[in-house]
# Entry
Amino acid sequence: MKIYRTSMDKATRSMTKLITTLFVIIPVGAFIMDGRKGFQNAIGIALIFAVVYGACYALIPNRYIITDAGKLVVRGVFTVKTIDLNYVRQVTLITAGPLPWFRLFGIGGFFGYTGLFYNKQWGRFYLFGRRRSGTFVA
# Structure
């Protein structure tokens, strides 16, 4: 069994910091601008942001495990995805440049890149990654 840990690249880290800052500033701004009434708005906004933040964090992989039984296990904070390597047709390394796909559903830069994506060459596929460069697509 081999275990590989993940880390965020500079672009992902910057986007995550920016979104985290906005998630703090917006509820505080609602409270400051509207006084007592703004407190209820700020709490509501903060709760929505907390759910979104938590869901995004829960979906991002933090390690990959290749088992001796020929399985790839993608472990997130609260999620586990198992992929049988016998069904993998191709592995492509993305080294640099713009990502060669677009997101159908998922996270594109906030804590990483995960979800359902589309590419003309590969069609629809799931991606579990935290970096734009050095990412492999199986």
The CA atoms of residues 71 and 84 lie 5 Å apart. The chain has one helix and nine strands. The beta strands are 2-5, 61-66, 71-76, 80-84, 92-94, 102-108, 113-119, 123-129, 135-137.
